[in-house]
Inverse folding.
């Protein structure tokens, strides 16, 4: 059973990191700050990173900034610089530390993984890094948008590596984390979890693959034995239409695209990434750095705004 979540302060800030300095992250963070009037309820919004990067995207009161390690290369929209990795990581570290100390929440702007990997960053993305620095046993990525919540069991790994990564323990532990989050973070008293299969037609009773019968179904049965309301394994090609979605509150999928495609189809501009299983609240917009439009005034802040609002909602639920 996952360890209890720590209580949160009812008025602690929400910390927005700058993300990749040359992408749209600082732009949408600043736009969200102004769209929400610098706060959500009792929670002030704080912009965490190099203040010069944010200032290039707009203005905000001096007390809205939490200054961190400066960028090595000034913001050049559209051009990610590996030399800025330290500044990007420091903004994340400071936001997480503040959230842990003060009981707040973190909303991360997108990072440019390729640029950071080129500078020696050793993690596939935010989710993996946040699990490391917070000491979480298992970090779970939930996508929220278009009235749908999905979780990929495996995240940033090649498709060829997915089958061996699907274990009974992984499905069971992830299912428990999801059910707990639905209940305690999202206020769903009796959560319903749907679990997809890996193979076409959920394996067709073993004719199209063995993972469903040998691994996924035993994990589902263990979840049911623990008291969870779980259905599956379900065929992924029929579990996301409107009638099917009405039967569950979240869907646990076996790999990245199986979970992300339906959310992005249904709610591309409002999609939010929530990391479950952490001792802090963390959300992010469900899009990348969009270097191709950075600095052109084209970035849509709706996903960032939705991420801030959901972070506040979860933080408020944990503070009660």
């Amino acid at each position: 059973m996952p360890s209890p979540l720590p209580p949160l302060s009812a008025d602690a800030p929400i910390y927005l990191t700058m993300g990749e300095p040359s992408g749209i992250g600082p732009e949408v963070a600043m736009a969200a700050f102004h769209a929400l009037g610098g706060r959500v309820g009792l929670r002030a919004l704080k912009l965490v990173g190099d203040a010069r990067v944010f200032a290039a995207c707009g203005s905000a009161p001096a007390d809205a900034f939490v200054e961190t390690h400066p960028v090595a290369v000034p913001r050049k929209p559209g051009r990610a610089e590996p030399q800025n990795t330290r500044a990007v990581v420091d903004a994340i570290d400071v936001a997480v530390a503040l959230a842990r100390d003060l009981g707040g929440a973190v909303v991360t702007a997108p990072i440019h993984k390729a640029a950071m990997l080129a500078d020696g960053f050793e993690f596939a993305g935010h989710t993996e890094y946040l699990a490391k620095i917070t000491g979480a046993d298992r970090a779970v990525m939930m996508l929220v948008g278009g009235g749908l919540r999905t979780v990929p069991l495996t995240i940033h790994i090649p498709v060829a590596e997915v089958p061996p990564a699907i274990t009974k323990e992984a499905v069971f532990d992830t299912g428990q984390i999801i059910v707990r989050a639905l209940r305690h973070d999202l206020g769903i008293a009796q959560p319903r979890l749907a679990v997809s299969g890996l193979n076409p037609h959920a394996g067709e009773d073993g004719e199209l693959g063995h993972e469903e019968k040998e691994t996924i179904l035993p994990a589902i049965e263990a979840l049911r034995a623990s008291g969870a309301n779980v259905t599956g394994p379900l065929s992924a090609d029929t579990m996301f239409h409107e009638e099917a979605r009405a039967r569950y509150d979240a869907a646990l999928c076996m790999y990245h695209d199986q979970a992300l495609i339906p959310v992005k189809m249904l709610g591309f501009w409002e999609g939010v990434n929530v990391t479950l299983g952490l001792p802090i609240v963390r959300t992010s917009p469900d899009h990348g750095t969009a270097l191709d439009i950075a600095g052109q005034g084209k970035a849509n802040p709706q996903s960032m705004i939705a991420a801030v609002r959901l972070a506040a909602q979860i933080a408020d639920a944990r503070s009660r």
User: Anything to note?
Assistant: The mean pLDDT is 95. The domain at 140-275 is CATH 3.40.718.10 (Isopropylmalate Dehydrogenase). The chain has eleven helices and twelve strands.
